Amino acid sequence: MNTSTRRSWDKVELFATISLLVVLATVLITRLSFAEVWKLPTVDLVLTWMALALTALALWLGRKRRWLRIGAVVFGGATQLVPMVVRQPVLIFPLLGAIIPVIILAVSLALLSRKRPEPRVAPRS
After folding, report:
1. C-alpha closest to that of 83 among 56, 34, 45, 30
2. pLDDT > 60? residue 120
């Protein structure tokens, strides 16, 4: 993969993770705004505030740090899903069904990002 292709792939990854962070922040803010209507357990409330703080931090500091953006998305998602599944174990089935397209997407992105050999051009005489 040449340098320009690599830079364009990096931009795609940057915009994709920033979009995920914005969506995650929106979900967290929505959940916190409904915390007074439907009482959230204290653990959920604390984890949601922590995830929102990390998401905001990742939006600011993650411009140059890929691991921070990806870590914030994983932590934010886990703080929302794990307590829910612990309280209602039957919810694991729809989540397992939803992970299949995520795995397909991750494998596709990994295959697309693999370094391909440069095509060799025969020298002209």
Report:
1. 45
2. yes
Distance between CA atoms of residues 103 and 118, nearest Å: 28
Beta carbons within 8 Å of 58's beta carbon, 6+ residues apart: 21, 68, 69, 71, 72, 73
Name the nearest CA neighbour of 18 among 84, 63, 76, 74: 63
pLDDT in the model for residue 80 = 86
Crossing angle, helix 92-113 and helix 66-87, to 10 degrees?
160
H-helix or E-strand spanning residue 80: helix 66-87
| pTM of the predicted structure, to 2 decimals | 0.66
pLDDT score at 115: 60
